[in-house]
Amino acid sequence: MRKDYLVRGVAFDKQVRIFVADTSKTVQEAQKRHDSWSTSTAALGRTIIGSLFLGTALKGDDTVTVRIQGEGPIGYLVGEADAKGNVRGYIKNPQVSLNPNDLNKIDVAGGVGARGELIVTKDLGLKEPYVGRVNLISGEIAEDFTYYMTSSEQTPSAFAMGVLVNPDESVDHAGGFMVQLLPGASEETISQLEENLVNFPHITELLKEGKTPEEILELVCQGGNPKVLGHMPVQFHCTCSKERFAQAMVSLGSEEIQSMIDQDGGAEAICHFCRQKYIYSAADLEQLQKETE
Ligand SMILES: [Zn+2]
Known about the structure:
The chain is of the alpha+beta class. The chain has ten helices and 13 strands.
């Protein structure tokens, strides 16, 4: 399998902006780390892909976090991305596997729940983060991101996201696109784009056929003379470290650390995002205690 990447482009005389990504390996990595089952994998994968697309608007070290809180059996979902194609995510209940929906697809809306909220937090390096929130409109996630972008960020957009899961729970293919109308887009452009999208094949089918993100970009923007402007590698990447968790323990204070030493002879921390486990010996903790002074 080729490495994951995202392409960005424009079409229709720069009235349309588009991003297309193959995220097969990235979502596979998330599946493996969370040991997730089909419905959870599809929901987590779509959330990560959507976060990746929101990340394309960021700069420098800024990050965006998307939290989807529905009433379905998978509980909440979190996806996070930066401007450099680094993404990570987690899910409350990774082991949900529902029967397929009426279209014989993974029932993501059944897992997420049709009622709930999508909350976007952008850390832009300012004192306060930007927070935008919308109610879920379908629970299928792509429609919910579409609704968020159009209503909360006033950028008419369409998202497509797909995750194809093998019978052994591994990820066969995953990817998506985000297409946006820029100010001044004409009626002709809008109707041509709608025509292109109305019976558009599933993105995972196209990836499975071997289509590249560039070729998918061409298909979405047919008749609009699309141009690819750039590429970016995409990967599952977590920013956790033993040191970061240690600093969190230091902030608990000396007494709390002493009780970990007395009761457990050490401590263990597990990262929500990547499931990496960090182990602290009694000696490690004594060292941290000195830092609290
Ligand atoms: Zn981590």
